[in-house]
Amino acid sequence: MAAPHAAPRRHHPSIAQASRVFRDACKMTPLAYLTKFRIIEMARLLRETDLTIAVITRRLGWNSPESSVTAFACHYGVTVRLSSQRSIIRLRSRAGRRRRPRREKC
Question: Looking at domain 30-95, which CATH architecture does it have?
C-alpha cells in the first residue's frame, strides 16, 4: 500500500505508444512530420530571405547542410539551386504536389 502522502501514479505512454498515437492522428511518423516541417520552413526562408543554406540548416536543427539539401531535393524533386531558378518552391507550396516522383534513395 502506498503512503498516504504519495502522489497518485499516472500512466505515461511509452515512446512507441506515443509514436503510434501521433502516427494515427497525423498519418505520418513524428520524424517524417518534423522533416516535412523543416523542408517547408526551409523553402519559406529561401524564398523570403537572403540567408545561406548553412544558416538555414542550423536554424532548423539539421546536423549538416548536406542532409537538408538532400531532404529538400527528395521532397520537391529538384535541388535547392534549381528550385530558385524555376520558382518550384512557389509552385509546390500552392499546388501541394511534387514535380517528379521521389527517387528510391530518399
Answer: Orthogonal Bundle (1.10)
